[in-house]
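Example 3.2
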Amino acid sequence: MIQIYSVEEAQKTILRRQALSMTSYPPRLLERTAQLFGPGVTPPQAVSQILASVQANGDDALLRWSALLDRQAETQLVVPAAELHAAYESLSEDLRQALHIAADRIRRFHAMQPLPNWETDQLGGRLGQRVTPVERVGVYVPGGTAPLPSSLLMSVIPAQVAGVKTIVVCTPPAPHPTILAAAYLCGVEQVFAIGGAQAIAALAFGTESVPRVDKIVGAGNLFVTLAKQQVYGIVGLDGLAGPTETVVVADHTARPAWVAADLLAQAEHDVLASAILFTPDRALAQAVQVEVGRQMESLERAAIIAESLANRSGIVVTPDLATACALANAYAAEHTCIAAEDPASLAALIPNAGGLFLGEHSFEVLGDYVAGPSHVMPTAGTARFASPLNVMDFVKITSIVALDEVTGRQLSTIASRIARAEQLTAHASAAERRSAG
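Structure, written as tokens:
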């Protein structure tokens, strides 16, 4: 059952966020970490052990960690091309068609994103920027409680549109055929059956089999996220993904059954997922509560949903729609859905959101699979400053400075003044030599 909260109750409970660097972890996680890594070892310390061993021992460490953590005694890290093709051929025609349509929409959406090289002569000589793709990108595709071929499409295709030459995919051992089929559909040639922190280590450092990459993208479990955090600076990252989250802002026009279905769709991802409804309409809140209970009875992942709804989700009754929008904006959710009479006007009140889904026909599940934008979006409140995965994540900008002689001399005098104010006399000298001719 999903609980109904007042604003004050929600702010003290479900709307309070916990940072990734938390020092308290679920007892079950700590117990398993102690069993595998030793008494008193924390998850960040365990991840450090994994990273160090892969950096030092390469493929041997990958195979050892796969056997220990994934209980997979595989001796083959590389997924052969023939296996990718076979997985694709094994899909039903309906599913193949669905993946092709999704891939086409994702590619067309990202192809519209401008990546301008530009120059100007209005500042003396030539100034501008050059946009070039990152050379090597690693994509992590989770394969835990649910296989996610959509995550592969949503990460690989923007990189391809950007012009990335080398794309390496890692996914946990015994990869699900739909993930391999999605890789085949996208033309990915390097797929490795490696999961968890060891996959991040392989991509960051390189091994005998796995090429080192320049940037790693894709969400994963806590260990994957902690590993990404620890290798940042050695490689670039798309961000640090926390548990997935959806907020719905709804008024009296919303359909309770549809709102409930959207909340349930989010809650089934993970016991740590958040699904929150903000509404000023208490009758709607109560109707959604009833619908959630009714619909949940027929869902396969009801146990996961129940835990998510009990711990991190809820319905918040607000004084008005403006307050609902303010709370949604402060929460800065990964997905913000607006089921209201005038969704566009309410969207203007919510600048902090990974994705905005306007109207009940633009529901978040379509964003997960086929709408077009990548579903890899900022979580844990980072939508305050971060963006969904997009083409710009796979390019880098180089500034071009080619001033003419006159401008160079004029600016040298200005530069030397600033340099001497900073007490950097070598800087000042380099500028003054130019200004003197």
